[in-house]
Amino acid sequence: MPPRQNPSAPPAHPSAARVRSDPVYVAKAQLFRVLGHPLRIRILELLRDGERTVGDLQAELELDSSGTSQHLAALRQQGVLDSRPAGTNVYYRIRDPRSSELLAIAKEILTSALSDSHALLSDLADDARTR
């Protein structure tokens, strides 16, 4: 029996399949996916000023070693972080400084959106008071 079609769903556009399989779009999506976790954003913020050991990051994040290692590995696999062993420690650093710039731009976008929302809420509150 064929799967049921959702009559309200728009028909799939042929270019959508091409976009989903295009390696450039897939790579970009994977980068944003790995950045989509709050702890990973915090790791990048901690590394903004220079390299740190896994132990330093673990203590700052208040995570166990397994959790910390999983997040660091995900960032390293996407090429966001580099690591280097030094004796019994492993140091992590941001591979490309533009990653920090990307976070700064994201903060600016969020700040702008929140400012717009705040202004709208103020206008709505003013409007409610005048009625």
Give your account of this protein's structure.
It is built from six helices and three strands; from the N terminus they run αααβααββα. It is mostly helical. It has two domains: 75 residues, Arc Repressor Mutant, subunit A (Orthogonal Bundle); 35 residues. Strands 1-3-2 form a three-stranded antiparallel β-sheet. The longest helix has 33 residues. It starts with 13 loop residues before the first helix and ends with a helix.
What keyword list fits this structure?
3 strands; 3-stranded antiparallel β-sheet; single chain; mainly alpha; about 130 residues; 2 domains; Arc Repressor Mutant, subunit A
Task: List strands and helices in order, with pairings.
Layout: H1 14-21, H2 23-34, H3 38-47, E1 52-53, H4 54-61, H5 65-77, E2 81-86, E3 89-94, H6 98-130
Antiparallel strand pairs: 1-3, 2-3
